Amino acid sequence: MTAAARPSRVASDLQTERLYTLEVAIVSGPVAESFARENPVVARTIEIRGDQTLARLHTAIFKAFDRNDEHLYEFQIGGRRPMDPRATRYGLPEPRGFGLGPPDPVKSAARAKVDALGLEVGDAFGYWFDFGDDWWHTIRVLSIAESAPAGRYPRVTERIGASPPQYLDPDEEEDEVDA
């Protein structure tokens, strides 16, 4: 292909995107006592570009922990604990008339780009998956690079511990502990 025949790249295509390295650790959820003993820490390190959304991060986390059944999820940024009313919440906005009262003020995870969150190295925020089984995760910002090397993102770069089953075996429910 000649230079004249090549499509031109616009300035936004040439701009480099920052690369965030995040540690995602399970802090609680329905796991069997035997699993918790064998896997005292269950965490994944994920790299994601700043131009990617929290919805993409959710998908990466979902796959990184070998989950197979989608559920509602929410990112909570700026709070000090799960369900902190001061946190900004991102997830799937509740449809009108779905709940008993007015919809919760949840911002769209599909529109929220990682770069727009104002994250800094050392920051931590929450991720809540499956509002019935309550899988709670802490996400810690390990590093932020000014540009991302070529490649597919988001991607998992490290795994610590086995992935817990998404659902407990009914025989193990009596031995359930918070992760």
3D structure, described in words:
Helices cover 12% and strands 32% of the residues. The strands form two sheets. It has an eight-stranded mixed beta sheet with strand order 6-5-4-7-8-1-3-9, covered by helices on one side. Strand 7 (124-129) and strand 8 (135-145) form a beta hairpin. It contains three helices and ten strands, in the order αββαβαβββββββ. With 179 residues, the chain is mainly beta. 24% of the residues are buried. The chain has one domain (17-164): Roll (Structural Genomics Hypothetical 15.5 Kd Protein In mrcA-pckA Intergenic Region, Chain A). Mean pLDDT is 85; it is low at 1-14.
CATH topology: Structural Genomics Hypothetical 15.5 Kd Protein In mrcA-pckA Intergenic Region, Chain A
Largest sheet: 8 strands, mixed
Strand content: 25-35%
C-alpha Rg (nearest Å): 19 Å
Q: How are the SSEs ordered, and which strands pair?
A:
Blueprint: H1 11-14, E1 19-28, E2 30-32, H2 33-38, E3 43-49, H3 54-64, E4 73-77, E5 88-91, E6 107-108, E7 124-129, E8 135-145, E9 155-160, E10 176-178
Parallel strand pairs: 5-6
Antiparallel strand pairs: 1-3, 1-8, 2-10, 3-9, 4-5, 4-7, 7-8
